[in-house]
Structure formats: structure tokens, C-alpha cells
Amino acid sequence: MRHTALVTGASSGIGLAIARELARVGVDVVLVARDEGRLREVAASLDTGTEVLAADLLTHEGLEAVAERVALPDRPIDILVSNAGFGLAAPFHESSIEDERRLHELLSFVPLRLAHAALPGMRARGRGWILTVASFAAFIPYGSYSASKAHAVNLSRSIRSRYAGDGIRATALCPGFVHTEFHERMGIDEDGPDWMWASAEDIARKGVRGLRRNQPVVHSNLAFAAIAKGLQLVPDTWQGSLINSYRD
Ligand SMILES: NC(=O)c1ccc[n+]([C@@H]2O[C@H](COP(=O)([O-])OP(=O)(O)OC[C@H]3O[C@@H](n4cnc5c(N)ncnc54)[C@H](OP(=O)(O)O)[C@@H]3O)[C@@H](O)[C@H]2O)c1
């Protein structure tokens, strides 16, 4: 049976790589992002069934149009990939509250809204997969970005535990640093030791594999997985000083 996935943020970076990986394993894809021209180029490059849905997920109309497509009963979405996102360069006390609202909405509310749209149909069909691109930041005290990503991870885990009996699987993909347009869009350099960095293709492969294997959380590599576990034993103040010393 052929499946269809909807991928948000499919015009670049991790979302584009996930769309490619899904196409490679024979899944049709609905591509969502704001830049319609780029989405059309992506669609033309994929050897699978494609649909382009240009939408700004930070507008009510854009988000509801995508939610409507997710819930459409006659063209079911079997796999929902909530990936679209961005980061803020300014520290929390200096960023504008409008930027904070946009960040929180795109990283926390949009995945919630789309999962809410997807679940009734998935439950009725007795199957469905939800892949949420969160971040390793979800496991550290790293500003409002990490708070939004922690929300995304916990939502994914909650959906997974509540709806497993309905045939629904949910995986939170939690990469460390990934070479994409993310840092350039924030206006900061790609920085840090090599082991912390991965390619979008590698992360996409691990995310799709994790979803197939029904893994709750997928990290970039074993080092990040071990650090996420180990940090649970480290007081927040120590973690905070470590992160701040790295950042400054
Ligand atoms: N790169 C990293 O180091 C890293 C690490 C951990 C987690 N992540 C997470 O990975 C996810 C993907 O980021 P990326 O690294 O692949 O960055 P990216 O290359 O900048 O891609 C971001 C994607 O999100 C889309 N997008 C942004 N705002 C949108 C909006 N308002 N409505 C619809 N689409 C929107 C962008 O497309 P348009 O501009 O065409 O709309 C683009 O396709 C994000 O959730 C990010 O937090 C990234």
C-alpha cells in the first residue's frame, strides 16, 4: 500500500532531506513551506507523487489550510512530519515579544495544531505516523527555543503513549547541530566541534528509520544520547554556566 506524508518546512534543510528520504522509500509527499517556487523545484526533483502547498504557518489562514489538508478524508495523510522552524539569535531578555510569540507558535503550537488535525483520521484508519523535528536543545536549559522544543518532545511522547493502541506511532527527532540554512537565517556562524555537527541527509535517514522502528526519541548520535541522559543528573545552574561559557 502506498502512503502519503505531509512535511512542513520542506523547502530546505532537514525538511527537504526528510521529503527526499520518504520519496526514496516510495512515499508520496505533500510539501509545505512559504516559498512556493522552491517547493515546486523540490517537487520536480522527487521521483514520487508530490503536492505543493505553499503556506505561512504563522498566519491563521496558512495554518488552517494545512490543517484542513492533513484532515482531508479522501486523500489521507499517513505520515505527518512537523519540521518547520527557526531560531532567534538574541537572548531572551533582549528579543522582542513578537519574535518570541512567532517562535513559540511555529515550534510548539503548529505541531500541536497539525497533530490535532491528523489524529481523528489516523485513529479511524487504525494507523498513522507522526515525526516531530525537535532538537537536542529540548534536554538543556537553552532559552525559550529549548522550552518550545521540550514542549514538542513531550507532546510527541504524550501522543505516542495515549494513542499507541490506535495504531499511531510518534517519534521526536532531536538533532544536535545540522548543516542547513538555520544558522544563516539567524545571522550567526556555524560553530563548534565536528562531532556535534551532522548533515541534513544523515539526520533525515535517522529520523525516518526511528519512525519505522517506533523509537520515542532519536538523537544525532550516541554521544548526544548519552549526554541527554547524563544531564538529568546535573543541576540546572551547572548546565546553565556550561552553556553560557560555551556561548560567550
Ligand atoms: N539546523 C540545526 O542545527 C537544527 C538543530 C536541531 C533542530 N533543528 C530544527 O530543525 C527544523 C528544520 O530546520 P532546518 O535546520 O532545516 O532549517 P532551515 O534550512 O532554515 O529550514 C527551515 C524550514 O522551515 C520553513 N519555514 C520557516 N518558517 C516558516 C513558516 N512561517 N511557515 C512555513 N514554513 C516555514 C522554511 O521554508 P520557507 O522559508 O520557504 O517558509 C524551511 O523550509 C527546525 O524545527 C529547527 O528548529 C535544526
From TrEMBL:
Q: Name one GO cellular component term.
A: membrane
Family annotation (Gene3D superfamilies): NAD(P)-binding Rossmann-like Domain
Extract one GO molecular function annotation from the record. Answer: oxidoreductase activity
One Pfam assignment: adh_short
Q: Which CDD domains match?
A: SDR_c
Question: What does the UniProt keyword field contain?
Answer: Oxidoreductase
Q: Which InterPro entries match?
A: NAD(P)-bd_dom_sf, SDR_fam
Give the family per the record. Answer: Belongs to the short-chain dehydrogenases/reductases (SDR) family.
Q: Which PANTHER family match?
A: DEHYDROGENASE/REDUCTASE SDR FAMILY MEMBER 7B, SHORT-CHAIN DEHYDROGENASE-RELATED
Query: What is the official name of this protein in its record?
Result: Short-chain dehydrogenase
Protein species of origin: Agrococcus jejuensis
- What lineage does UniProt assign to this protein's organism? Bacteria, Bacillati, Actinomycetota, Actinomycetes, Micrococcales
